[in-house]
Design brief:
Distance between the termini: 45 Å
Structural class: alpha/beta
Oligomer: single chain
Shape: globular
Helix content: 40-55%
Length: 226
């Protein structure tokens, strides 16, 4: 499993990248607004993220018609070679995905919740598909089971003939709220988990690790003072 950071915060990205485990970044309008982002600086901000991260950086179009999404996608893809255009899973999004993929622009289809949506996205040429987990939990449904269904269904078939450079479609477990979400996504075979920085930090934490470290340090102190 690969880890993407779900954020627009440059400091978080720099810190996570320093750990050596970061494979990419996903952003969206909500995350950009949380850092006080300005419309006229959006492209420059994505460029700064791409300077920090070598892997895929998802930048989302907020247009609603296929022609406008395609126009947005072309502009976003021109920012840096590792930009992936993020498009909502809807009819206009599917049409735009097909056009962009045919032009050699990689697409991440987001706001995916069902197997049929995922299959349509794969057929439309999506390089990445992002099923949401936490938002199902928010309405008291099992987001992990929905994710597992998507992973199984997509892995049943080969969609590489539809994608840019005939790459395999990868499933991004999105809307991740906990380390357990990551664990379960990994066990079911999701290719990527995109996680907020606070979840990424919790993934490395365990009370037994802390207790063991404390014990080791105390024992070493005894050695040093012997």
């Amino acid at each position: 499993m690969k880890f993407f950071l779900d954020t627009a915060d440059l400091d978080e990205i720099k810190e996570a990248a320093s750990w050596g485990a970061l494979a990419g970044v996903t952003t969206n309008p909500t995350l950009y607004s949380r850092i006080g982002g300005k419309l006229d600086d959006f492209h420059n901000h994505i460029a700064r993220i791409c300077e920090i991260v070598d892997g895929p950086v998802s930048a989302e179009s907020v247009a609603m018609t296929r022609d406008e999404i395609v126009s947005d996608g072309r502009e976003l893809a021109a920012i840096a070679p590792n930009v992936v255009v993020k498009i909502p899973t809807m009819v206009e999004g599917l049409a735009a995905c097909r056009t962009l993929a045919d032009e050699g622009i990689r697409v991440n289809m987001t706001l995916c919740f069902t197997v049929p949506q995922a299959i349509l996205a794969a057929r439309a040429g999506a390089r990445y598909i992002s099923p949401f987990v936490g938002r199902f939990d928010d309405i008291s449904e099992d987001g992990l089971s929905q994710l597992e269904n998507v992973v199984t269904a997509i892995n049943n078939y080969d969609y590489s003939e539809n994608t840019v450079n005939h790459e395999q479609v990868e499933i991004i477990a999105a809307s991740i709220r906990s380390a357990n979400h990551v664990t379960q996504a990994a066990l079911m075979g999701a290719d990527i988990a995109t996680v907020p920085f606070n979840v990424l930090k919790k993934m490395i934490q365990h009370p037994l690790t802390d207790r063991g470290l404390e014990s080791f340090l105390k024992d070493w102190e005894k050695v040093a003072n012997a």
